[in-house]
Each structure stands twice: as C-alpha cells, then as structure tokens.
Amino acid sequence: MEIPLQITSRDFELTEAMRSEILKKAEKLDKYYDRITRCRVIVESPHRHKQEGRLYNVQIFLTLPGGELIVKREPDEDLYAAIRSSFDTARRKLEDFARRQRGDVKRHEEAPYARISSLFPEMGYGFITTPDDREIYFHENSVVNRDFKNLQEGMEVRFTEEKGEKGPQASSVTVI
User: Fold this and answer.
1) What is the pLDDT of residue 108?
2) N- to C-terminal Cα distance for the chain?
3) Which of 61, 95, 133, 158 has the fewest CB neighbours in a 10 Å radius?
4) What is the reported pTM?
C-alpha cells in the first residue's frame, strides 16, 4: 500500500490485539492485488439491541488504480467474525477486480435477434426468422418476458438457439 493503513473505531475503543488482527488481514490483501494505494477500515458498534447485545460493523474502503472497492457487511455480535467476514469479502472483490483488469473475465456474447415470422396461437408455437433468413421454431413455454398470447408477427426478439428434434429451436425468446 502506498498510503499507510488507516483504522478508525467509532463508539468504542479497539484493543491492540484487534488492531494487529486488522493490520495482519490488510497486509494479506496485497497478495491478491499488489497495487492497492489506500486502505481504510472503519469499525463501529452503532447501537445495542436488547435481544442481540452489541453488534459490530466493519467497513473497508480500498482505493485502487482505476476504481475503489467498498465492503459493507451485515453487523455481527463477534468482532473477530465481523473482521474476518469483511476481509474475506474484500479479498474476493480484489480477486475479481484483478481478473477484470487482466482481461481474464469471459465476456458473454449478446443473444442474437430475429423477428417473429409466423404464430400459431391455437397450437402454442411459432417461428422466428433471423437476419440471415433462417427460420427457427419456438414453443410458447420458451417466451421469457411476455405472455405468448400477446406476441404479434413482426415483433423483434432475442433468442437462445439449440438443436431440436426436427432442426433449430429457440429455447428462450425475449421480446426486445
């Protein structure tokens, strides 16, 4: 880290053991992404619940080249568990951030589009035609965001194609 770790406690005093635990976990984050410029940790115990007792909330703010990661978890009765949970989440977010920066994250292709060319509402199926003039069958159960009864010929749709018993078939059809 370029800027030293900043630990802030609110509504109670942190012991040296707790501070060293936070420091140890923050130093481990450098193994997952070595370009962290700043790390701020805020530990608070905002209020007491009559049935649950004292709750601890640990928030982590990481400043990175090209972004900032913020970790806010649900409060926990055990301070060490709250610290562990927050730093585990920060580690996962850092790993995801590093993968995205390296380009290791798979990009999903956008679903192809087509137009509804014919409908047979009494039979519960229809056909869509792709821009390259292929005709693909779809069943009423494959319509995702609209009722089959509301479809009309000429509507644009996105679809997922699969091989059916009698040729290509749309497994999901979404009206654009």
Assistant:
1) 67
2) 46
3) 133
4) 0.59
The helix/strand count (H/E) of the chain reads as: 2, 11
Question: At residue 54, does pLDDT exceed 80?
Answer: yes
Let me know: does 69 contact 40? Beta carbons within 8 Å: no
What gap in Å lies between CA 83 and CA 94, rounded to an integer? Answer: 16
| Tokens 């920060």 belong to residue | 90
Nearest in space to 90 (alpha carbons), one of 26, 148, 147: 26
* pLDDT for residue 64 is more than 80: yes
Tell me the backbone φ, ψ of residue 122, rounded to 5 degrees: -70, -25
User: What 3-state DSSP class applies to 74?
Assistant: coil
Q: Which domains does the chain have, with CATH numbers?
A: 6-102 (3.30.160.100), 113-175 (2.40.50.140)
Q: Cα 110 vs. chain centroid, distance in angstroms? A: 18
